[in-house]
Amino acid sequence: MKTIHKFILKSYFGPMILTFFIVMFVLIMQFMWRYIDELVGKGLSLNVILELMMYAAATLIPMGLPLATLLAAIMTMGNLGEHYELLALKSAGISLPRIIKPLTIVIVFISIGSFFVANNLVPYSMKKMKALIYDIRKQKQTIEFKDGIFFNGIENMSIRVGHQNPQTHLLTDVLIYDNSNYNKMTTTVADSGYIGLSADKRYLMVTLYNGQTYEESRQYNWYKENEFTRYDFDVQNAVIPLEGFDMERTDMSSFSNSQTRNVAELRQGIDSLEMQVNRSNARSYSPLMQQYLFRYDESLAQDTLPVHKVYAREMDAIASLDTSQLAQKMSVYMTAKSNAASSKSMFTFDEENAKEALMNLYRFKVEWHRKWSLPISILIFFLIGAPLGAIIRRGGLGMPIVVSVSFFVVYYVISITGEKMAREGTWDSFMGMWVSTFILMPIALFLTYKATNDSNLLNAEWYYVRYKRARSFFHGLIKRKNKYD
Predict the structure, then answer these.
(1) pLDDT band, very low/low/confident/very high, at 290 (cuts 50, 70, 90)
(2) Distance CA 393, CA 414 (A)
């Protein structure tokens, strides 16, 4: 490897690693902020939170890697241009494509690796993340008492405390309503005590001091045989089984959808859904004709029978009813009404099945194209970032962040719009998922051409000089016109 290649690679890997972790940190914080309401108050351990963040980070790699590639390319080439190292290389007869050749090879390998990440790591992490979020949502909040306010987080039980010592956790003026027993309502009043969860969060540990327990029976004929009992106690201990306060893990296989499948599974799902859609669309007309409308005359149920012959036979059948008895007419009417209702139900059911299968088919196709569009987007962002850095010649995190975020926002808006159109079936899946690539690829080639030819594309002074020349030219035309007039 040439010394210049080592220098270029060394200049790129530092910003690439730095920007990747910065982008991933921002995306993870956005993810955590989205689910902050469901995480607070559950008493989750640090391991559970770190596990959720790890799975979320894996699923966010396809979004963070293109932005990190773009930002790192702009920073690297901008630093080289700002310190005149890029100018020195060009003065030595080395063109821009030769300068970025080692970086291009590295980006190609990164793009290939990103495909395997999106195809293998992301589906697995998506399953684990969805299962973990479901378990967190299912878990109840921890027991937290506020002075003078009833706590109703335990099923069939309400607890109010007058005050809780923040150091010793001693509760004073305790009132407990227990409705867990259908035939008995229990009210407990105590001067003080301790109430908390066991270490495994499966039991409620209750220790009360100096109080009374009131029990009121709930018999069927309570108005005749109602019983009321009172117990005084100095110390009362109770262990109450609980559900939902401990973290119960759910099998991740229950959370399978288009986002949790690899390319092979998506291709298999697309083939199955296409067959299902075709069957749903094909089986509607024939059963309607044969089983409901013309069940007694198979010749009328043939798809090839001319419409005017079907209409003529129907008119003959209706005319024959004029001479029939009223009971027969009512019977024919009720049968026709029943067949019409049945055919409507059948068509509605088939329509819903076909619509659901079609929407799943759109989702599967979108995810299949997403797997392949990610590597191409990384390569395109590099081809945009490297020429831009060479043109603007600014390093650091100021100008590169502004430019890279602007391009990424444009890319993201176009991608989201195309994906929405593809999921709704308005656009073809290929068009919806690749429209951003088709738009940004010419921009990347244009910027590469301009940077190779040392264009002043983003030089404000260059535009100002051109503006002054154009203004002088038009002023000259106006003067010559006024002179001849």
Answers:
(1) low
(2) 28
Q: Largest Cα–Cα distance in the chain?
A: 121
Instruction: Please answer whether residues 143 and 197 qualify as being in contact, where contact means their C-beta atoms are separated by less than 8 angstroms.
Output: yes
Map residue 398 onto helix, strand or coil: coil
Question: Residue 437's closest CA among 362, 374, 366, 364?
Answer: 374
Decide if 60 contacts 27 (C-beta within 8 A): yes
Pick the most confident of 8-12, 45-49, 278-282: 8-12
Nearest to 62 by CA among 476, 432, 415: 415
Q: Using the predicted structure, report yes or no on whether residue 286 has a pLDDT greater than 80.
A: no
pLDDT (tens digit per residue) in 331-354: 666 666 666 666 666 666 566 777
Tokens of 333: 């009417």
Residue 471 structure tokens? 């203004």
Quickly count: other Cβ atoms within 10 Å of residue 382's Cβ. Answer: 26
Rounded to the nearest 10 degrees, what angle do helices 3-34 and 46-82 cross at? 140
Angle CA 245–247–248, to nearest 5: 110
Helix 46-82 / helix 399-424 crossing angle, nearest 10 deg: 120
Residue 163 is classified by DSSP as E
Q: What does the pLDDT look like over 433-444, one tens digit per residue?
A: 899 889 888 888
pTM: predicted TM-score of the whole model, two decimal places: 0.67
| Three-class secondary structure assignment of 247-312 | CCCCCHHHCCCHHHCCHHHHHHHHHHHHHHHHHHHHCCHHHHHHHHHCCCCHHHHCCCCCHHHHHH
Q: Cα(227)–Cα(232) distance, rounded to whole angstroms?
A: 17
Residue 330, token pair as written in the block: 């009512």
Q: Contact, 229 vs 240, CB < 8 A?
A: no
What confidence tier does 109 reach under pLDDT thresholds 50, 70, 90? very high
Confidence of residue 311 (pLDDT cuts 50, 70, 90): very low
Question: What are residue 154's phi and psi, to 5 degrees?
Answer: -105, 130
**Residue 78 and residue 392 in contact, taking contact as beta carbons nearer than 8 Å:** yes
| CB contact at 8 A, 173 and 162 | yes
**CA-to-CA distance for 292 and 398, rounded, in angstroms?**
72
